[in-house]
Amino acid sequence: MTAQINRNRYAKGEARREAILAVALECFAELGYRNTSMREVARRAGLSQAGLLHHFPAKEDLFLAVLRERQQIDTRDYHGEADAIGSLIRAVRRNATIPGLVRLYMTLLGEVPYSDDAREYFVGRYDLARSLISREIEQGQRDGTVRPDLDPRTAAQALIAVADGMQVQWLLDEDQQMADAVEFTWQLMAHQ
Question: In terms of domains, do 106 and 137 share one?
């Protein structure tokens, strides 16, 4: 009986956490990182501020959890390992439909020099992306669909840099076609 009660509590806690993350993403996307307060997230989630702090002790913790949740959704939606480059392009294309998420991502990226948590998040994210993209390029080289002289790691770094750079440009001018630029860059790199 006690085990069942604990499972129910855990399930309720996880459901509450997921609901908070959905509300937080909405707030960050709508208001931006700086203008989103823990009080506002708590209010929209139907919690007291103390209730929110029980799940996420600081705004940065909540912010990182939102980004990690988005990364899991992107990975699940796009099956990252099977088509890493296509996944990157689709994620960038989808990001253009969620302006607040792009602002959120770039804001946290700017926090890297000041936050060990943000740095750890991005180091892990970039390591994984480079690894998946490099492996896909290597497989393409073995299959004969990608230029054999292309350095997989350098190409992976360049694709990620184009994706991030286009997000910066897009923040300044939303008419920029972020995903098209990443796709174009990949086409230039991959084919002779």
Answer: yes
